[in-house]
Amino acid sequence: MAILFVASLNYMLKYLLAYIVFGVEEYNKIPADTRNILIQSLIFLISIVTTWALCSFSMGKATIALGLNKPVLQTMLWALLCASPMLIGGIISLGLNNSIAIKDILFASVWAGVFEELVFRAFITGLLVRLAGWHIIPAILISSLIFGWGHIYQADSAAEAITIFLVTGSAGIGFAVFYWLWKWNIWFPMFMHIFMNLSFVITNMGTNVLLNNSGNIYRIITIVSAIILTIVLMRKRTLPDFNTGTK
C-alpha cells in the first residue's frame, strides 16, 4: 500500500504546496518548470525514504531493492550502443537543435531519466514484484498507466493526448520489461531513457514524444537494437549482474 500511495503523490503534492505551503497566488507565480521539478524532487525523496523504511532502514538493502547495486559503466556503454541510432542518425539527418540549452539537457534528459526510472520502474514496478510479491504483469501495467498519464500535458488536443498516452504508456511497459529482463538492473533502462531523451533535446526530432517520421524510424531502430542486445546477452548468460539477494 505504501508503494501505491507514493505513486499517487503527484496530485496530492500539488494541492499541498498550493493551498498549505505557498498559498495559491504565490504557487501560481512559480514557473511551471520549477513547480514540476519541486514536486518530482519531493516524490523522488519520498520514494527513497519509503524504500529505506521497507528495507528495515538499511541503505544497503534499499540499494539492492532499487536495482542500484549493478555495474554502472558497463551497463551505460551497452545502453549508449543501443541508443546510438537515435543520437547519430538524428544529428546527421535531422541536424542539431539551434536552441539547445544546458538546462534542457540536465532536466529533460538526465533528470527525467533518473527520476522516472527510479520512481516508475525501480520503485513502483520493482518493489511491487520484489518486496510485495505481485505478479510482474499488473505491476508493470500500473506503473505504465501512471507514467503515460503523466505525459499527456504535452498534447494540444484530445486526439493527441490519447496518442501520447498510448505511446508513453507503451514506453513505460518497454522500460519495465527491460528492467525485469536485465535481472533488476535499473541502470540499463535509466541510461536508455537518458540517451533517448538526449536525442530529442539536441536534434530536430519533433516538439513532443510523438516525434516526426525520421525520428520515429531512429527510435524503432534503437528499440530493436536494445531487444536484440538483451536476447543475445540472455542467451550467453552475460547480462551485467551481481548477486542481489532479493527475490
Q: Between the first and last Cα atoms, what is the distance in angstroms?
A: 19 Å
- Round the mean pLDDT to the nearest integer and report it: 90
Q: What integer value in Å does the Rg equal?
A: 18 Å
H/E series, N to C? HHHHHHHHHHH
Query: Into which percentage range does the β-strand content fall?
Result: under 5%
Walkthrough of the structure:
75% of the residues lie in helices and 0% in strands. With 247 residues, the protein is mainly α. α4 (32-54) crosses α5.
Summary, kept brief:
By secondary structure, this protein is mostly helical. It is 75% helix and 0% strand. The model is unreliable at 242-247 (pLDDT under 50).
Protein topology:
Layout: H1 2-7, H2 9-21, H3 24-29, H4 32-54, H5 59-65, H6 72-94, H7 102-130, H8 136-149, H9 158-181, H10 187-202, H11 213-236
Helix pairs in contact: 2-4, 4-5, 4-7, 6-10, 6-11, 7-8, 7-9, 7-10, 8-9, 9-10
Keywords:
single chain; 247 residues; mainly alpha; 75% helix; disordered C terminus
